[in-house]
Amino acid sequence: MGAAELVVDLRDRRIETLADFWDSIAGPLGLPDWFGRNLDAWWDTIENGGISATVDDADPLIVRVSPSGLFAPGNSDGTRLIRVFQDSTRATLIS
């Protein structure tokens, strides 16, 4: 069976910090308790695989967010996270 698109819609969640983002995606993406909760760990999860079978089986992974809080223009943590998504070949962020 081939990989299938996976959409995680977080638009109804208040996401102000990276911690809020990790909390919001952990369940839907089956991230293990030992997931690093940092951008390097996120890159390994979406690009290298082997962290979450849910993410590994997704092609592509699409995460939808509201353009506020962490994803508001000028938020430096949000900008760094957006860049990780932009560099990814398997995951997309839509705000």
Arithmetic mean of pLDDT: 96
Helical segment tally?
4
* 3D shape: globular
Give the end-to-end Cα distance, rounded to a whole number of Å: 30 Å
Structural class: alpha/beta
List how many beta strands DSSP finds.
3
Tell me the helix content.
25-40%
- Using only C-alpha atoms, the radius of gyration works out to 12 Å
Order of helices and strands: EHHHEHE
* Poorly predicted ranges: none
Report the sheet with the most strands, covering strand number, pairing sense and barrel closure: 3 strands, parallel
Strand content: 15-25%
Strands of the widest sheet, in order across it, are 1-2-3
What can you see in these coordinates?
The protein has helices at 18-26, 39-48, 53-56, 76-87; strands spanning 4-9, 58-64, 91-94. By secondary structure, the protein is of the alpha/beta class. A 3-stranded parallel beta sheet has the order 1-2-3. The protein is globular and about 30 Å long. The model has no long low-confidence stretch (mean pLDDT 96).
Question: What can be said about this structure in brief?
Answer:
This protein has 95 residues and is of the alpha/beta class.
